[in-house]
């Protein structure tokens, strides 16, 4: 079967029919794709490089958006207190937020799926231990666990590498607070799958349990994982923004949308509202679009709703 045949079969599927029948989902997908492309091509489409000190001019600081009195056509959404273009800063900040979000979801998925497979397939003491750890993590708000992990990691890092390691620490903090959903879902699916005939047949012919889990069980329990990952992407981006807003996330030298909001919030009551409003709206729109896409995917893949 060729790729063209697969594409035609997808266009004729119930999933695509459900997608094109939901106007909100189509709009959410377009918004998500546009933001991802804008982040990927930020160095080429941004009007200015906001982190090149040689191009900054303090005479251009605190300029309002172009359509307001005193605005400059060179800076569509205005500038901040250092003369940096707000639009360019947002494009670069969006890039960082998406990298942290996708990386955090990917690492959480790897951890959760692996532990869920082990817990559901092996059972016994292994299952009890993994699930008690999961229950312990669920008993605390995710933001507090992320703050704790972030604080512990940064306390052991030398001062000179703290800024360079901020992104990796954020990814780790997000992953360690969100793997539980994957683990519990995969555990339940694995407990169902391991009692089926194909798994019993694999055991009879002498396959290693690890090989059975990876080759036979794993492909059959990944269905709900994609839905969880899509929904958790918005949560991961929001968690990173909250941590950065609290000052324990990305540094000002590599700002995410959360860092831009924190910096802009300091000037909000002085009348420079555009520095905080536009990054906030971008963050809200991105998280809303991703969540709407995840909600549709969850409903579309639910056989009970078909």
TrEMBL record:
- Annotated membrane-spanning segments are 21-46, 96-121, 133-154, 166-186, 224-246, 267-293
For this UniProt record, the keywords arranged alphabetically read as follows: Cell membrane, Membrane, Transmembrane, Transmembrane helix, Transport
Looking at the record, the residues that make up the ABC transmembrane type-1 domain are 94-294
The record's PROSITE patterns line, in alphabetical order, gives:
ABC_TM1 (PS50928)
Taxonomic source organism:
Marinobacterium aestuarii
- Report the subcellular localization: Cell membrane
Similarity field: Belongs to the binding-protein-dependent transport system permease family.
Q: How does it sit in the membrane?
A: Multi-pass membrane protein
One GO BP:
transmembrane transport
Assigned GO CC terms: plasma membrane
- InterPro entries, per the entry: BP-dependent_transpt_permease (IPR050366), MetI-like (IPR000515), MetI-like_sf (IPR035906), OppC_N (IPR025966)
Q: What is this protein called?
A: ABC transporter permease
